[in-house]
Design brief:
Layout lengths: L33 E4 L3 H14 L2 E6 L7 H5 L2 E4 L12 H10 L4 E3 L9 H9 L3 E2 L4 H8 L1 H10 L7 E2 L3 H8 L3 E5 L9 E3 L5 H16 L4 E5 L5 E9 L5 E13 L2 E7 L2 H5 L3 H15 L4 E9 L5 E7 L6 H8 L3 H9 L16 E8 L1 E2 L5 E2 L2 E2 L2 E3 L6 E5 L6 E2 L6 E9 L2 H14 L1 E3 L5 H8 L2 H4 L7 H6 L11 H25 L8 H10 L2
Parallel strand pairs: 1-2, 1-4, 2-3, 4-5
Antiparallel strand pairs: 6-9, 7-8, 7-9, 10-11, 10-13, 11-12, 12-15, 13-14, 15-22, 16-17, 18-21, 19-23, 20-22
Helix pairs in contact: 4-5, 6-10, 13-14, 17-18
Length: 527
């Protein structure tokens, strides 16, 4: 696990795209002068920073709950789009388009979540005369439906998990248990249920359908054969509008809680240990993307077993939360590439020119208490100390004095590290976690310390049930004291020791043996 991911390890694939599209060199300047970001929090701020580097003005949007949010403060312009509920603000297409018109933007970047995989939104942007920074509405519609995406991937020759969108009872009888029920229009762990017995199928189906309806406005559910102890490995793909399509290697996302990713890393320990597996997975991802006529950033997700077999799971037609992991091992700015491709530029590299270096890892920092069943912990951030140093990146949307709202996903930030090997990346992440303190609320930072110190994680022995099993063991999930509290505790301990020694000197002066210089030094520390 300590072997470096060498720069010489290029990601060549035989079907990198039509030869006419393989044009190297600089993509040239973009034609955008102002872009609206239809999102909030850390991803909005992440996009703002790239826009500033490119000399493009940014327009943030915000709800009532986000008036004081950091992305609003950092943007060049900001537009209020409604009350706190997402349905009245960040999911309201007309209000976002009105803001775009009012601020005379050229393009709209959806970020991730909210409307980022909504084909109707992408189409509405185009109809209103704004460039949608992402794939075409057709590709989003094709790959946004999990069942349609399976058919598209299969038509392109990608291996798929056995499943059915018509009769889950008949499928369960034929395939056998366990099976997984999944929302057709979903993602992020919503509308998913594992079923182990026929007598539980109907209730699980009803629960999954109801949850999917609430989360996505679409209660359709399909069934898949559950591959137990599988690893979740995804391939980042990127295409331009001239036919060139490449992949940027894999990310392993097997550390999950309730089907939601917790830690992501690149390269995958399994893929690195399996000769040719990266190339085969990349080829399968490109087939699926090409079958959908895909361009811009996208991620093809697979389930894999420890023998190197893998199966298409779904495609996310947007920038992923974990995109910084790929950025660190490739040296690319994926948001810049998205913007340039949306402006009509060619990708500035071919498949053969892409090389990966080192190992990167991301921890998703949430406002939740892992010692109390991950209960949400909204509230005011009283203190904030973020890690820094070599190979450390923090994509954050918080600051001291800001109140974490109840209305949205409780992600505070993403902590990403890079080093030359996986082993060194783990050590660097532990060091960075030790420097991270969020005062006033609880966070899941203690969980990451427990995971990264677990021997199975260190060995790269992962699967999608790994974290659930780890949480059944006795873990210390209490937060470490803040640096300020630790300093005070050390001073109090020194003071108590000095008082104890002074008392001993008064009662037993003949037994004095410690250095007066040491005692004087301690006293000086305490004053």
């Amino acid at each position: 696990m300590g072997q470096p991911f060498q720069a010489a390890n290029s990601l060549s694939a035989s079907s990198a795209g039509p030869k006419a599209g393989l044009q190297g060199g600089s993509p040239g300047p973009t034609s955008f002068s102002k872009i609206l970001i239809a999102n909030r929090g850390e991803i909005s701020l992440r996009i703002i920073r790239t826009l500033r580097e490119m000399g493009i003005r940014s327009v943030a949007v915000y709800s009532d709950a986000d008036r004081a949010a950091l992305h609003v403060r950092k943007a060049d312009e900001a537009a209020h789009i409604g009350p706190a509920p997402s349905s009245e603000s960040y999911l309201n297409i007309e209000r976002i388009l009105d803001a775009a018109r009012k601020h005379s933007v050229d393009a709209i970047h959806p970020g991730y979540g909210f409307l980022s995989e909504n084909a109707a939104f992408a189409q509405a942007c185009e109809d209103a005369g704004f460039v949608f920074i992402g794939p075409s509405p057709r590709s989003i519609a094709l790959m946004g439906s999990k069942t349609e995406a399976r058919r598209v991937a299969q038509s392109g020759g990608a291996p798929i998990v056995p499943g059915s969108d018509s009769d889950p009872v008949a499928f369960a009888r034929e395939a056998g248990f366990p099976i997984m029920l999944k929302a057709v229009a979903g993602g992020g762990g919503k509308g998913m249920r594992r079923v182990d017995r026929m007598e539980d199928l109907q209730s699980a189906y009803d629960a999954a359908s109801s949850e999917a309806e609430r989360a996505f406005g679409d209660g359709r559910v399909y069934a898949e054969k559950l591959i137990e102890n599988a690893r979740h490995i995804e391939i980042q793909v990127f295409g331009d509008q001239h036919g060139q399509l490449v992949h940027l290697g894999e990310r392993e996302c097997s550390v999950q809680r309730r089907h939601q990713k917790v830690i992501e890393e690149s390269p995958s320990a399994l893929v690195s240990a399996m000769p040719g597996m990266r190339e085969r997975m990349g080829e399968a991802a490109l087939k699926a993307a090409r079958a959908a006529g895909y361009y811009n950033a996208g991620t093809v997700e697979f389930l894999a077993d420890n023998s190197g077999n893998f199966y298409f799971l779904e495609m996310n037609t947007r920038l992923q939360v974990e995109h910084p992991v790929t950025e660190l091992v490739t040296g690319l700015d994926m948001v810049r590439l998205q913007i340039e491709v949306a402006a009509g530029a060619h990708l500035p590299f071919t498949q053969e020119q892409i090389a990966l270096l080192g190992a990167a890892m991301e921890c998703r920092i949430y406002a939740e208490d892992p010692a109390n069943n991950f209960f949400p912990s909204p509230g005011r951030i009283e203190q904030l100390s973020e890690p820094a140093g070599p190979g450390v990146r923090v994509d954050s949307g918080i600051y001291p004095g800001w109140t974490v709202p109840l209305e949205y996903d409780p992600m505070l930030s993403k902590l990403i590290v890079w080093s030359d090997t996986r082993e060194h990346a783990v050590e660097r992440m532990l060091r960075a976690l030790g420097e991270y303190h969020v005062g006033g609320i609880r966070s899941n930072i203690p969980l990451f310390r427990a995971i990264l110190n677990d021997p199975a994680f260190r060995a790269g022995d992962l699967h999608t049930a790994y974290l659930d099993q780890l949480l059944q063991t006795k873990l210390d999930l209490n937060p470490a004291p803040s640096p300020e509290i630790a300093r005070i505790a050390a001073l109090v301990a020194l003071k108590n020791a000095a008082l104890k020694n002074a008392k001993a000197e008064q009662t037993e002066p003949a037994a004095q043996s410690h250095s007066r210089w040491l005692a004087a030094g301690r006293e000086e520390l305490l004053h």
